[in-house]
Amino acid sequence: SDIVMSAGATDDEAAAGGSLVASAGKGADGGNMQLESGSGATGAGGDLRILAGSGSESGGSVQMSAGVGSGEVLINGGLSQMDGISAGAVKIVGGKSTASEGSGGSVELMSGEGGLEDVSG
User: Is the Cα dihedral 100, 91, 88, 67 positive or negative?
Assistant: First the structure.
């Protein structure tokens, strides 16, 4: 059976809809948070989808950031343990435009910025 969580909606065009927040506890080490889809006993495992909402001006963004203090963001294709079955791929695709004069979204890879050094003469 399904578990459904939903924040409050509004028909007021000047007000934002409700937010849904889940957080792990803090301590000497912070608590972990895990979202995991179900295993398939005889078929495929369940998908995990993170979708931002659409809007009349622009769609929402999906943002992932590692914690302050050299945390990492890792995107990893799935493991294969069966002969003849390829391991999971990692695909990064820019957005699609269906507008007659629109263009597709770009894909940018950028390195991080280093600290600024004070140089005096």
Answer: negative
pLDDT in tens, 47-57: 888 888 888 88
Report the predicted TM-score, pTM, of the whole model to 2 decimal places.
Answer: 0.64
**65-to-68, 73, 74, 111 alpha-carbon distances in Å:** 9, 7, 10, 14
Residue of 12, 29, 104 lying closest to 71 (CA atoms) = 29
Residues 117, 107 contacting (CB under 8 angstroms): no
Contact by Cβ (8 Å): 61, 52:
yes
99 dihedral zone (left: phi>0; alpha: psi -120 to 50; beta):
beta
SS3 letters across 5-22: CCCCCCCCCCCCCCCCCC
Check if the beta carbon of residue 53 is closer than 8 Å to that of residue 60: yes
- Sequence letter at residue 69: G
